Amino acid sequence: MTPASAVARPVPWPARGGAWLLAALLLAPTLWLASAFATPAPEVWPHLFAEVLPLALRNTLALLGLLAVFALLPGVGFAWASARYEWPGRRFFDWALVLPLALPGYVVAFVYVGLTDYASVLQTTWRALGGAPAGFPELRSVPGAAFVLALVMYPYVFLLVRAAFLRQGSAAMDAARMLGHGPLRSFFRAVLPMARPALVAGLSLVLLEALADFGAVSILGVDTLTTSVYKTWYALFSLPAAAQLAFSMVVLVGLVLALERWGRGRGARSGPQLMPPPRRRLRGWRGWAVTAAAALTLVLGFVLPLARLLWWSWRARAALPEVGEAAINTALIAAATALLVLVLALVFSVLARRSGGDRGVRAAGFVAGLGYAVPGTVLAVGAMWLLVSLEQTSSWLGSLALSSSLVAVLLALSARFLRVGHEATETAFLALRPSLLESARLLAVPPLSRLRRVVLPLLRPGLVAGLLLVLVEAVKELPATLMLRPFGWDTLAVRVYSHTTEGLWEQAAWPALWLVVVGLVPVWWLVRAQD
Fold it and tell me: What is the pTM of this model?
């Protein structure tokens, strides 16, 4: 008998079935979309095929392709510079380059739209210098959207690839150089292939976030598949067609996930280095060039948007929009989502631990977390379609009007962010070694005292981290809340979107600042984890 099997407690089939039942409930909004094909929408689909989908599909694919390039260049470049070289300000930029993650994409989008519109200082100066109005770079375009999204998403690549470079150390590079390869060839032939799993993981996060993005592309006037789902429901007034289109997006998300798994599997892996890799000092203009590039990226992705929000808020200080009710609504839905997600994540983690790593239970936990890869618009349509179908088949549920209540919002957000909470609880349980519990049991400590004095203190840091991460993600979530909220029930994100659609940049700046402050919490957590 192995040690693992000695301490494993088999989970009875009702518990394993319960884990799969929870997973099915969380995936129900996505899975139920397939039933929409039983409700044809012949009056909508000809218009979609002729006028909407060709442009939306081209824009989506072009956006993903450009964003991959725009995010990989700074992400991989700064990761390599941070892991292998010493240059002026390197320690500062190691954590400062992560700060753009605190800014929601739609906030950066409306800041740059306000900075580059016809009456802005930039365009006014351009015309004063003799530039033609048509010659000014157009931000409301697919390249503009890719540029804006890359400013806030490249840290995903930077964090994961930098960690991979630090783990592999300098062995691969040194071996390639000894074989006669130059620095550039050694990087692409030896170093980068070994970091491919991390690079693919970071890039897949960027692409999935771009597929899910609704606010930034809407503000920038770029029609994508995500905005098409929203317009099909709210402009064409066809929930069945929106559900059918949303299901096609699930297929696209599945393709991205499959490519991500394939890319990870083909990457070479290296064991961790006991000693950190030695850094070569970049002297002269080379070191200052890296510093200037890092500073420019940080200014464009964090400093300039934050400064503009502060300036707009200060200029409108005498008539700042009222955000008290929206802030309370945001706190309520985010707290409810975080608590529900944490409870569900604990259920999956406890069942997996008590089963000794039972594959069925772990598979249920993994499947339940797939909603994180599904765009918020898709989950919103799925939740609405599911609740409407239930209300139509049950007079008792129909009297509750669940589809027009916060239950729909809570269902979509819980399915979207369970993976975040589950990964945090799994990490927390790694600190709960069986030897500690056995020692407490041998000392005749009562079960409740073991829970209070041993278990909870060890789990608390990870659980708090998971709670905070889910809380912040729910605060910033826009499409699901926008599409499912009851009439007149606004959050901070909805207020920002409502003001920006009317071009009221100063009114949108104040609620956006609150979102930025909340978004700094997980960034601070990530920065602390790097130290």
Answer: 0.84
